[in-house]
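help with this:

***
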Amino acid sequence: MLKLKDISIKLGEFQLKNINLELNKGDYYVLLGKSGVGKTVLLEIIAGLIKPDSGKVFQNNLDITREKIQKRKVGIVFQDYSIFPHLTVKQNIAYPLKRKKISNSDKDELINKYASLASIKHLLNRNTQNLSGGELQRVALARMLVSNPNCLLLDEPLASLDIQLKGGLRNLLRQINQSGVTILHVTHDYEEAIALSNKVAVLHDGEIIQKGLTKEVFRKPANEFVANFTGIKNFFVAEFTPINTAKINGTLEINVSNKDEIKKGKIIIRGEEIIISNNRIESSATNNFKGKIKQIIPYLTNHEIIIDIGVDLSVVISDESLQKFKFKEKSEAWVSFKSTAIKIIP
């Protein structure tokens, strides 16, 4: 439905190199990347606001690379909403219909339809100056949807919203996608990708370094950058032996469950799968190591402990466990994890 083939562009020191991406009808595709890697530039190329140096953009198998903005069946919603402050909510939503040859009653029907979908019908006669960020984003989405785009391009749509507003807007984006609208959503937040997308691509240094089904990319990151960026801290290069052991990062030897007899690859150990204690505990875990706590990092609902066991290991524990065991930085502790908790990537 939407296809990018070998898209490249250079803007000063910044560049995108040979971007290839394909969205099928009904996809919710998330483009993940840090700030400044070119996610917004890519959206602007698709929308026709910027022309690439090379490569092509196809929509429904038609080359639209040099097509005028008005003739592309795409809608783009920017992070800053771009709402007209001198117009009411209704006038903002109606704006794309100005040049359409449809009756006023049909216009009103479309406005009411998308205002209802965005849960802002009660705001139609309001001025936009006093609306919240979440309300403004809903107005921007309704304004784009009223023009019936084949594909909706979203530039960090949740970035400036608080946690409560994010939840409501996520539900709205799911509804929009489920109604048949294909979405390409750019963000630096991997949790948004998990919550919303069926496919994901990771952009780094101007190139897509991994793409595919969301579950596959998150389960099998291609390299350390993707692993770290998608929230996986314990990602190691490994060499395996025939006796179900592995040497990680060339140093530490651990027990693994290598049923496929892989010789070289990478391993992932999720922080939630690791037990940390003050003393060695007797359990079915085959991996037990003593180490020194380097850092204790607080988060909203838990803590991350970085412990040096020959390699730095990230362990996730609850606030209650931290208080109970009184872990402190620079103190010694034991970690244990089962061989079956280790995910092996060939």
Notes: Residues 163-178 form the longest helix (16 residues). The chain has two domains: 2-229, 235-345. The domain at 2-229 is CATH 3.40.50.300 (Rossmann fold). The first strand starts at residue 2 and ends at 11.
